[in-house]
Amino acid sequence: GLSSLPESLGKLGSLQTLNLRDCEGLSTLPESLGGLGSLQALKLWGCSGLSSLPESLGGLGSLQTLNLWGCSGLSSLPESLGGLGSLQTLYLAGCPARDALPESLRRFAC
Predict the structure, then answer these.
(1) Closest listed residue to residue 47, CA positions, set 73, 66, 9
(2) Which end of the chain has a smaller Cβ tally under 10 Å, C or N?
(3) Residue 55 has pLDDT above 90, yes or no
């Protein structure tokens, strides 16, 4: 399966949806993802090997949906995600980071 993503992914400036569902072997995401200015949905559902998210994701100004459902390896989220002004939906079921939301994301607490 997929274990890494190329830094060049961040050059896809018109990309609107990135679906990496069930990429269990993926442990990190490239910092370049923060350059995807048109990205509206980032779906990482079931990426259980993911151990962290890059701070650069806080620069995704168009992001409306972030799905981290089943990302059992994520114990925390970057504080920078609080700067996602367009974010409407944050899925965290089955994600340990749900219990340690940064202050900037408390508006999504259930």
Answers:
(1) 73
(2) C
(3) yes
